[in-house]
Structures are given as C-alpha cells and as structure tokens.
Amino acid sequence: SEYCFGGRVLCVAEKNDAAKGIAEIMSNGRSRRREGMSKFNKIYEYEYHLFGQDVTVTMTSVSGHLLGLEFKAQYRKWHSCNPVLLFDAEVQKCCPENMKQIKRTLEKEVRQCQVLVIWTDCDREGENIGFEVIDVCKAVKHNLQVFRAKFSEITPNSIRRACETLMEPDANISDAVDVRQELDLRIGASFTRFQTLRLQKIFPESLANQLISYGSCQFPTLGFVVERFKAIQAFIPETFYKIKVLHEVEEDNVEFSWKRNRLFNHTACLVLYQICMENPIATVTSVTSKPKSKWRPLPLDTVELEKLASRKLRINAKETMKIAEKLYTQGYISYPRTETNIFPENLPLGPLVEQQTQSPIWGTFAQRVMEQPGGPNPRQGKKSDQAHPPIHPTKYSNTLQGNEGRVYEFIVRHFLACVSQDALGQETVVDIDIAQENFSSSGLMIIARNYLDVYPYDRWSAKVIPVYEQGSQFQPSAIEMVDGQTSPPQLLTEADLISLMEKHGIGTDATHADHIETIKSRMYVGLTADQRFLPGELGMGLVEGYNSMGYEMSKPNLRAELEADLKLVSEGRKDKQTVLQHHIQKYKTVFIESVRKAKKLDEALSPYLGAAQEVAEAEQQDMEFPLPVRKCPHCGQDMVLRKKREGNTKFLSCTGFPACKSAVWFPDTVLEVSRDDSICLTCLPHPVHMLKFKFRRGSLPHMMPLEFVGCIGGCDETLREVLNLKYLRAGATANKPAAAKKPRTCGICHNPGHTRVTCPQR
Ligand SMILES: *[C@@H]1O[C@H](CO)[C@@H](O)[C@H](O)[C@H]1NC(C)=O
Ligand SMILES: *[C@@H]1O[C@H](CO)[C@@H](O)[C@H](O)[C@H]1NC(C)=O
Ligand SMILES: *[C@@H]1O[C@H](CO)[C@@H](O)[C@H](O)[C@H]1NC(C)=O
C-alpha cells in the first residue's frame, strides 16, 4: 500500500450514537468500549482492514461543533464598545467549557495514531466540524494524515463503501460555514446590542431585562408572519353572487356549478338569474369521461418532511428534525438533511422495499410493490444536492414508540408510496346549458387506489354522478341565486412559513426549524389554538420600525443574497474573504443608517408598548458608545470623546481609565466637538480621526473660521496652540483645563469677544 503507518487510525463521528453505530458495523459487533474524558462520548476499539492492511481503529465522537466563534475579550461585554465596532472587531475560535473534555480526549488519542478519518455528517456543518477536529488533532500531531468518509446512512453497505473510497476533506464547504458563523456573530451581536440597549431605555416598563435579538434569518422569518397578519387586517371582504342548479335524481342530489363561478355585480347576476328562470329547462350539452390519476408523492426531502409532519402528524419542524436525526444515527433512516428528491440510479431500491415486507401493517403493500411489473418505480423530482439521496428507511423496525414511531412510519409509508403507482380513476363531467348559461358537475370513480392504500395522509374521494345523455333535457329541482363573501387569507401555518422561507432562500433546509423556534422563543410571535403564527406586539413594532426606515431588514433579499453567496463559496466558485468583506460592509451600512434613524423604531413600537421615554436626542447614543478617535500615546488603548456629567465640557479620554489617566480637556471656548469620519493622513499611529469643532465667537484668531474639521494628532500647529495640547509631549499625561487660554476683553475696542491681537479696529 502507498500508505504506511504503525497501524492505528483515529475515527471521529459527529455524535456518540453515530460512533457507536459505525463501530458496531465495522467491527461486526465486536468492538471494545472504553471511557473517554467526556462521559457522553465513548471510545470504541476494533480491528479493521483498511488501505490493504490490518489496522486498529479508535472510534470516538464530538457533540456537534467543538469550537465556537467569539469576539476577543475586550469586546465581549455589552457596554464594552460601540456596537458598530463589532463589524470589524477581532474574533477567535474558542473551545467552550462543555467541550473541553472532548477536545482533551482527541488530543490524547491522536498521539497514538498516524491517520485521522473524519466521520461527521456529510453536510456543510459536518464538514466544518470535521475541520475543527482536524485543527485540534494536527496541533498535537503535525504529520497526521487526514481522510474524509462519505456516507448517507449508517448501514453496512454504506459504511463499507465509505471505507473503500476515503477522500480528502473539502475546505471550501467548511469555509462557507466559517463565513456564515462570522457574519451571524457580527450582524447578530451588533444589532441585538443596539436595539436591546436602546429599547430597554425607551420602554423601561415593557422591556426591562428583555433581550431583543436580531438575526439576519430571524427577521425575515418574522417579516413573513407580520406581512400575512397585515394582509388579513387590511382585507376588505367583498360580496359576490352566483347561480346554483340542483337536480334530484332518485337518491342523488346533483349540484351543478356555474361556469362563470361568481360575479361581484348584484344587478348583473340578477339579470342572468332572471333569464334562466324564464326558461328553466336544462339541456345536457356534453358528457365526457376520461381517466384521471392522483399522483403518488415525490421522494422525500427535508423541507417536505418538515411540512408534511407539521400538517399531517401535527409534529413541529424542530421536533421532527430532532426525531429524524435520532432515527438516522440509529440506522433506521438515511440522512435526513437533504435537498434531493431524485433517487440515484445506483441506489438499489428492491432490498429497501423487501425489508419492509415483514411488517404486519404495510408488509403486504411492500410485497405488492416487489411484484409490480418492473419492481419499485419511484416518481422522480428535479432537485439534487449531489450529496445525499432522498430520505428513506434503511432498516425495518416495529419497536419504535410514540412520535419516533409515527415519524418512522410516515417515512416508510411515504417511501413505499413513491415507489408504487399513481391512483387511477375515471372522471365524468356533465355540462348543461340553461338559457345559454353554462353549468357543470362531475363524478369520480376510483379504479385503482394503488399508492393510497399505504398512504393514509392523502385523500381522494369517489363522487357518484348519475348517468346523463348528451342532448337530453331535464327540469332542475331548483335554481338559486346565492351570495357569499370573499374571505381573507389565513394566518400562516408552520408548513406555510417553511414554504416561504424556502421560496425566498432564507436559511437552509438544515436551519428552517431553528429560525422558527427562535422567533417563538423571543416572543416575537405566538401560536393560535389551531397552530398558526400570530405576531406579538414587539414583533409587529420591530418589523414596522425597520420597514419605516426604508430598509429591507425584515424582507428576505439581503439574507437570500448571502445564502446564495455561501453556496458559491462551498462550491469553490467564490472566495471566502471577498464574500465575508462584501456582506460585512453591506450590513454595516445598514446598521449605521439604522442607528441614525433609530427614532423611527421608537415611534413604531410606542403604539404597542406605550409612550416612549424622551431620550436626550441623537447624541445620546454617541455618548454612550463613543467611537475611537485615536490610540492613546501612553498606553495604546482607544481614546474617545466624553462629556463631563455636569456642564457641557468635553474631553478626550483614554478607555484605559482609571489605569491610564491620559486625557485632553477642551477649553470652554469649544462649544461643540464631535468625531469626524475622516482620518488624518500624516499623524500616527493610524488611524487618527479628525474632529469637528465649533468655537465661541471671538475665541479664535481673526482669520480662522469658527467651525472647521481639524486634527489633534499634532500636525496642526494652530490647533495645538489654541487647545493648549501639551499631552503629546513626553511625560505630560493631560493638558491643563483650559482656563489659561480664556480670551480677555480687548484693550482697543473693549469688546470681550476677541483679543487685542485679533481686534478688527487694530
Ligand atoms: C352592474 O351590471 C349592470 C348590468 O349589467 C350594469 O349596468 C352596471 O353598470 C354594472 N355596475 C358596475 C358597477 O359595474
Ligand atoms: C357556453 O358554452 C358554449 C359551448 O362551450 C359556449 O360556446 C358559450 O360561449 C358558453 N356560454 C357562456 C355564457 O359562457
Ligand atoms: C475550492 O475552491 C477553490 C477556489 O476558491 C478551487 O480552486 C478548488 O478547486 C475548490 N476545491 C474543491 C475541492 O472544489
């Protein structure tokens, strides 16, 4: 073999259950179990034949992500900085406390091994978790060889195939997750801190201590709920009119419906009705009978599983995915996170159907599928993620209980339905004419129920219609003009919401359920008794507030573009850094504007939460979270503008206070000073922000304007003089408060506004 190593291979799965299942298969049930340092993640050891040699495998697991992304310590506290800085603040990957034991286990075990095989789930998150494991292991053992096992189910065939075709881990896929994590962290933290701190202050009674989170998926999801609610509120019912024809034939009461369906003009309908009533004889104009089929379902992907479980089993998406995940790690079903609804040609379906023939409940149906001409014949969809097949059972079970049992049964029945045959029927349509108005009625005869026999979640009812002959005439038993009202759309169900998220590209099939859960747990939305989403007051106000700023915060566009870029990164078609920078800039722009227009948020919320507390103007935010003006020449930390508690005196203060007492006091001739976005090109260390000044009339040399943008980094001689900026020189930590520079009354004109030097009469 081209690989030569001492014979020990470390394998790492995403969860303990998966490690256990894979070990059991690879070892034929003969693995030795021992404890790792984390009591939830066991170690399984066994012999295996890999790379043409006998090796000893150490199989263990992580518990999802091993590392988390966070800001460097100085940014972590809520009041530590202006939230806008979080778009650029340094971040790092850290191992959370509850994962440390797992990390130590890996570090210890890998020392004995020469090869690492990643067995995490084969999706984006799994690939990223794989790279976390690789980083941890390579830090201990630099020359480690690394492979990736690709599999969609924990079954003997699938695992054996994965071992025979070990690959390289795909860094591009992992990069997409890194980009998503970093953007979620920056966008989430900045907006969440900004809106929480502001709104808690403005609505102290309603929102004290409430976290008002923002997420770039959460908000559009909330937006869908609010939009539907508003459509219902804005709905004005309209009255419509229609003509209905009834015909009693022995036992049957046949209803014919009007071809015009309905009219909104009462007079117009009445006129037609009267014409019919003048000559109420019906003539049968046509009787047609044609085959009609009801299609069997498409192979099951994640979104359909979530929607159908929510609709048919009344199990919500989050719970469904939790159960499906468990069924997968226990080997009952294939990987449940998939966008594919086409069965690949190389997946033999016969054995999968065969397994189910032992069921006392659907076994007979499975047998029928085996015996149908050509065997299992899946209806095929159009989507493939090129990674996993549609969700299907991989093992028969009759022991699963409760919701686990229901979800498993659903997946089996759906699978058997989609590989069987469409239901077939014969539909008869009878058209009649009364005074040149057309009506029709139809009947359905079901010829072969086929897939419906195994799929109780779909209904198709036969409808009897008596025999009519073309050209014959009859007298209807009644012709009625009826009215009705148009009805508003209904609040969204979870299935509706998932459809909207999918349609607009919010989140991925793997995350829909989580975003929905988040907006529920934040109390942005609630559920009605019939499980429909109703926006809460906070949710309504936030969406209206951001909408009124003119931003697409609660609209799907921003996030959908990001989601599309992530896909391109994972396919290696776009570069990680470019995508990251592009979206950070985009959201930062939106953030800055949102802060500027924050009053709109207060206004939108106050109808729901009561009067807004007056907060001292826009400056308030700036003062609470001053932005850095320059680095302190003494300790290197940021210097920011602050205002003395009483009075209007401003000063430049070091954030290292009280350890560092560096400060620049502005004389009281400075009426206003604020940070300008521009940066001095000469002063060091970069960046030194320029300041915008407004001076008292008469306090400056005659030729200087009273308002200007200047640099206090030391390059501007005049400003240094005017402000008495000594702090820049070695030794001095603060300039003297400005009393020294108070302008005296002019000795020539006796005007207190200026000095002798600048007196115009001089
Ligand atoms: C309603 O229909 C009548 C009769 O066809 C017509 O005269 C009238 O203009 C219609 N009204 C409206 C509002 O369209
Ligand atoms: C009724 O049906 C006939 C035949 O299909 C058609 O020619 C006629 O236009 C229809 N009448 C109305 C009012 O729709
Ligand atoms: C990963 O992306 C780079 C470009 O960013 C590309 O050259 C490379 O082929 C990709 N790798 C894989 C395995 O797709």
TrEMBL record:
Example GO biological process term?
DNA recombination
A molecular-function term among this protein's GO annotations: DNA binding
By its UniProt entry, which PANTHER family does this protein fall under?
Answer: DNA TOPOISOMERASE 3-ALPHA (PTHR11390:SF21), PROKARYOTIC DNA TOPOISOMERASE (PTHR11390)
- Gene3D superfamilies according to UniProt: 3.40.50.140, Bacterial Topoisomerase I, domain 1, Topoisomerase I, domain 2, Topoisomerase I, domain 3, Topoisomerase I, domain 4
Q: What is its main location?
A: mitochondrion
The chain positions of domain Toprim read: 8-152
Q: Which GO terms describe its cellular component?
A: mitochondrial matrix; nucleoplasm; RecQ family helicase-topoisomerase III complex
Q: What is this protein called?
A: DNA topoisomerase
- Cofactor names: Mg(2+)
Q: How does it assemble?
A: Binds ssDNA. Interacts (via N-terminal region) with BLM; the interaction is direct. Directly interacts with RMI1. Component of the RMI complex, containing at least TOP3A, RMI1 and RMI2. The RMI complex interacts with BLM.
> According to the UniProt record, where is the region Disordered?
369-400
Q: Which reaction does it catalyse?
A: ATP-independent breakage of single-stranded DNA, followed by passage and rejoining
> In UniProt terms, what function does this protein have?
Introduces a single-strand break via transesterification at a target site in duplex DNA. Releases the supercoiling and torsional tension of DNA introduced during the DNA replication and transcription by transiently cleaving and rejoining one strand of the DNA duplex. The scissile phosphodiester is attacked by the catalytic tyrosine of the enzyme, resulting in the formation of a DNA-(5'-phosphotyrosyl)-enzyme intermediate and the expulsion of a 3'-OH DNA strand.
- State the species of origin: Sander lucioperca (Pike-perch)
